[in-house]
TrEMBL record, chain A:
Places the protein is found: Cytoplasm; Nucleus
Lineage, opening ranks: Eukaryota, Metazoa, Chordata, Craniata, Vertebrata
Protein name: Aspartoacylase
Keywords linked to the UniProt accession: Cytoplasm, Hydrolase, Metal-binding, Nucleus, Zinc
Species this chain originates from: Oncorhynchus mykiss (Rainbow trout)
Gene3D superfamilies to which the protein is assigned, alphabetical: 2.20.25.160, Zn peptidases
Binding site for N-acetyl-L-aspartate: 63, 178, 288
Recorded superkingdom: Eukaryota
Cofactors named for this entry: Zn(2+)
Gene Ontology MF terms in the entry: aspartoacylase activity; hydrolase activity, acting on ester bonds; metal ion binding
Residues holding Zn(2+): 21, 24, 116
Residues noted as binding substrate in the record, renumbered to the chain: 70-71, 164-168
Automatic annotation (TrEMBL), chain B:
Name the record gives this protein: N-acyl-aromatic-L-amino acid amidohydrolase
Record-linked Gene3D superfamilies: 2.20.25.160, Zn peptidases
Residue ranges constituting the AstE/AspA barrel-sandwich hybrid domain according to the UniProt record: 220-301
Native species: Oncorhynchus mykiss (Rainbow trout)
Keyword Metal-binding: yes
Stretches assigned to the Succinylglutamate desuccinylase/Aspartoacylase catalytic domain: 12-205
Phylogenetic classification of the source organism: Eukaryota, Metazoa, Chordata, Craniata, Vertebrata
PANTHER family linked to this entry: ASPARTOACYLASE (PTHR15162), N-ACYL-AROMATIC-L-AMINO ACID AMIDOHYDROLASE (CARBOXYLATE-FORMING) (PTHR15162:SF5)
Cofactors that this protein relies on: Zn(2+)
């Protein structure tokens, strides 16, 4: 199909968010480190701003205070009249939108990296919100190549129902980094270092782009989110089964129809009854029990990214 | 020592507690299932088991605690303190639990209190108790070790007198926590829950056998006695941590830590080494809940403890029971004899003494 050159402006303003969930410790620690000394994240020609998005939740080492900040950036919340009676995280979303947005406008930050941890065995996952974000696709292609043979799965959350309004979504190019497994409130060295390395490559990419390097067309294998699977529950809403031992920790591995999925407390196996093979992820994420999600299924897809070059 | 048998009262009233920390889910689910399937109190031959959800409010919110850590509220001082409408929920609850399962230190207290916990540390299954000479607990420990081959089973001893003992299990005449890890808080892992169910089942099996008159032979068991806690290095001004557990120590609970072994890795990549002079066994390595308590890891000594042969009192034997003072004296004598035989006296390394500010669970 030849060159499909996409012209981009310089990626001049970049933010790194930590503490969107106050108990996801890698991001909190890295951002606090970089607020003290930003040398490591400095790149020529770009302003890189480390920022703690939910300081009250960080202080209490809890996911959120009133409501999940990473679901709070809806149009409704952002356009609501500001006031102290609003939930803390909604007020915070409005403030963040003012500093780094406004979401959807030309003044918004070019790139925001949002640092997260998960109790799921997801390794270093990159989260992509739009299949048409060629800049992000090229960045993710670059990162995957840079950390090979280690892998960096890409989760595409573009879905009419399942997509949610993240803090990073105020930027033109939002990127989620989700690294696990790590318990909430815990800082594991290896997880911390993995996140740090991925971010380093991401910033290197931005620097190369700003220096005028052309990135030729490429393809990126992604996992597109498909279906949210809740725990089996009784009529009172109590969970009556757990993630099956065969599925536990098997993020990104194929789940075929008939494979074990849940195990009831008296030992009965419940099996996956979908039409075809899916790739589950966010398996047994602690924060998702209350969101009625045991795991999410994905389908593999290959996305094409056009060439990009700074104008 | 051989052939010397200790006769003890039956363990007829057992309390099984979960949700003492509301986000340690194995115990929460185990208790919930038991309460759903059976009556709250089950009576079988020789044994009645009370199942309790210790901190329902914290369970409902899936938090460790709502105002203060319930599992630090069972000291004599806290249990006997006054209650006003400003008293934290957990202190009110600890006094309620003391009424239900105690009173602590009295003849009415439950014979055995078993409290179910999880840890983010890679500790396998641990029984945690305040005594290293409670023969009931130590025999249960040995029984679990022999019955459960899939997971390491260990015994941790915190050397505190009863009135200073602060956790729920100290309310019973005998008591211990069952602590299983690694599991993230707020998560149920099926394999961890199975392990806990198995552990509880074997424990109740032992109690049933004991109460039925089975004699359990004496022997030796390994015990880890808590020596000290180690905090993270912290920034002088902000008090924030400046290093994480070193990758070579992470997940290596109960692997001997020697002088100069790596302990922490600073955020700038520097390795901080163990400065103690005595090799010790680390545990509770990187337990999430302990960051706020200033504990990165705990350290223990290991030793071999001799346990006597035991059996339960028979009908009619009660009249011949010694007074509890005589019984205590006899237990102390037995302990002394066994320590002489089995205790491996550690060389004094001249290490500075740290106060035994042990805190667990």
């Amino acid at each position: 199909s030849g060159w499909n050159r996409i012209i981009n402006n310089v990626a001049r303003r970049v933010a790194i968010f930590g503490g969107t969930h106050g108990n996801e410790m890698s991001g909190v620690t890295l951002v606090n480190l970089w607020i003290q000394n930003g040398k490591e994240i400095h790149r020529k020609g770009v302003e890189t701003k480390p920022f703690i998005t939910n300081p009250r939740a960080v202080e209490k080492c809890t996911r959120y205070v009133d409501t999940d900040l990473n679901r709070a950036f809806t149009t409704e919340n952002l356009s609501a009249p500001s006031g102290d009676d609003l939930p803390y995280e909604v007020q915070r979303a409005q403030q963040i939108n003012e500093i780094f947005g406004p979401k959807g406008s030309p003044e918004a930050y070019d790139v925001i990296f949002d640092l997260h941890n998960t109790t799921s065995n997801m390794g270093c996952t990159l989260i992509l919100e739009s299949s048409k974000d060629h800049f992000n696709l090229q960045m993710m292609h670059y990162i995957k190549k840079a950390i090979a043979p280690d892998s960096c799965p890409v989760l595409l959350t573009e879905h009419p129902l399942l997509k949610y309004s993240t803090s990073r979504s105020v930027a033109k190019h939002p990127i989620g980094l989700e690294v696990g497994p790590q318990p909430q409130g815990v800082l594991r060295s290896n997880i911390f270092e993995s996140m740090r390395v991925v971010l380093k490559h991401a910033l290197d990419f931005i620097e190369l782009f700003n220096e005028g390097l052309e990135f030729p067309p490429c393809t990126v294998d992604v996992f597109r989110v498909s279906e949210k699977m809740d725990y089996p529950r009784d009529t009172n809403g109590n969970i009556i089964a757990m993630v099956h031992p065969n599925l536990q920790d098997c993020d990104w591995e194929p789940l075929n129809p008939g494979d074990p999925m849940f195990q009831t407390f008296d030992g009965t196996t419940l099996r996956y009854e979908g039409a075809g093979t899916v790739y589950p992820t966010f398996i047994n994420e602690a924060a998702y029990y209350e969101k009625q999600q045991a795991f999410v299924t994905t389908r593999r897809e290959t996305l094409a990214a056009g060439a990009i070059k700074k104008t | 020592m051989e052939g010397r048998e200790v006769v003890l009262p039956t363990v007829s009233r057992v309390a099984l507690c979960g949700g003492t920390h509301g986000n340690e889910l194995s115990g929460v689910y185990l208790v919930r299932e038991r309460l759903k399937r059976k009556r709250k109190v089950e009576e079988e031959d020789h044994i009645s088991v009370v199942t309790v959800m210790s901190n329902p409010r914290a369970v409902q919110q899936c938090r460790r605690y709502t105002e203060t850590d319930l599992n630090r509220c069972f000291t004599h001082a806290t249990l006997s303190g006054p209650v006003t409408d400003k008293t934290p929920y957990e202190i009110v609850r600890s006094q309620e639990l003391n009424t239900l399962l105690g009173p602590k230190g009295s003849p009415e207290a439950m014979d055995l209190v078993c409290d179910l916990h999880n840890t983010t540390a890679n500790m396998g299954l641990c029984l945690i108790a305040y005594s290293d000479c409670d023969w009931i607990s130590l025999h249960i420990y040995r029984y679990l070790q022999r019955q459960m081959s899939d997971i390491p089973v260990r015994f941790i001893h915190f050397d505190l007198p009863l009135n200073e003992a602060y956790s729920l299990d100290s309310v019973g005449k005998h008591g211990f926590a069952i602590e299983i890890g690694p599991q993230a808080h707020g998560v149920v892992r099926s394999n961890i829950l199975s392990t806990m169910q198995e552990g509880v089942q074997h424990m109740l099996e032992w109690v049933h056998l004991f109460n039925s008159g089975t004699q359990f032979e004496g022997g030796k068991v390994d015990v880890y006695t808590m020596v000290k806690n180690v905090d993270y290095p912290r920034d002088f001004e902000t008090h924030g941590i400046t290093a994480a557990i070193h990758p070579q120590l992470q997940d290596r609970d109960f692997c001997l830590l020697r002088p100069n072994d790596p302990v922490f890795q600073t955020f700038s990549g520097e390795t901080l080494k163990y400065k103690g002079t005595e090799p010790l066994y680390p545990f509770f390595i990187n337990e999430c809940a302990y960051y706020e308590k200033g504990i990165a890891l705990s350290l223990a000594r290991q030793r071999s403890v001799g346990i006597p042969s035991i059996r339960s009192e028979r009908e009619g034997e009660q009249g011949k029971r010694k007074s509890s003072a005589d019984e205590m004296e006899e237990e102390e004598t037995i302990k002394g004899e066994m320590e002489g035989e089995g205790y491996q006296k550690l060389m004094e390394y001249g290490e500075e003494s740290d106060s035994l500010n042990g805190q667990h669970n």
